[in-house]
Design goal:
- Residues 4-40 form the DUF4124 domain.
- This is DUF4124 domain-containing protein.
- Pfam families: DUF4124.
- Helices cover 56% and strands 7% of the residues.
- By secondary structure, it is mainly alpha-helical.
- Strands 2-1-3 form a 3-stranded antiparallel beta sheet.
- Helix 5 (127-144) packs antiparallel against helix 6.
- The radius of gyration is 30 Å and the shape is elongated.
Length: 178
């Protein structure tokens, strides 16, 4: 008797409303749930109302259509790789074997900044001018600090982090400093 009454209620001609919640979930209700409510056509069967699993699948498929941010082009990635490889080799030449712990620390900072730069999604419009400016600053730094190689290594890593911030809009929280 209870199942008969439930069946009669579900097969009645009451409209079913489909709404989208603020957080993107689909809501199906027998009462109007907002101004954007869409009335679903009923076929008179229990299968016309989407199940919870179907609702979850709809929500999942809508959320996976978000596009991931674009990555740097291959030539831009190669430029980043070349800059960091050259800087790493230069810094490596500054340290003796007995100072390997300090070298390892600087190389880990450099590797972290390198990976952060590779994850950048856009590059500045005036990239050529930014690179020229930072190349000149690096030359000046090398000329000024040629006697203190360790300080030069730290300053070059800081300068490279500043270049990445200018080129890719990276914040200082994403870049590590020596």
């Amino acid at each position: 008797m209870v199942s008969a009454s439930l069946l009669s209620v579900s097969l009645s001609a009451q409209p079913i409303y489909k709404c989208v919640h603020e957080d993107g979930r689909l809501i199906f209700s027998d009462t109007q749930c907002g101004d954007q409510a869409e009335i679903l056509e009923q076929e008179g069967s229990l299968n016309s109302i989407p199940s919870f699993a179907q609702q979850a699948e709809i929500t999942r498929s809508e959320s996976t259509t978000d596009k991931k941010p674009e990555e740097l082009s291959i030539s831009e990635r190669n430029q980043v790789n070349n800059r960091y490889t050259q800087l790493s080799r230069e810094i490596e030449a500054f340290f003796l074997y007995s100072e390997r712990h300090e070298l390892q620390h600087l190389q880990s900072v450099l590797a972290h900044n390198h990976q952060t730069a590779l994850r950048a999604t856009s590059i500045a419009e005036d990239a050529h001018a930014v690179n020229q400016r930072f190349n000149q600053q690096a030359r000046d730094l090398r000329t000024r600090l040629w006697q203190n190689k360790k300080l030069m290594a730290r300053e070059l890593i800081k300068l490279e982090a500043q270049r990445d911030a200018a080129l890719y809009g990276l914040t200082s929280s994403k870049q590590r400093r020596p």
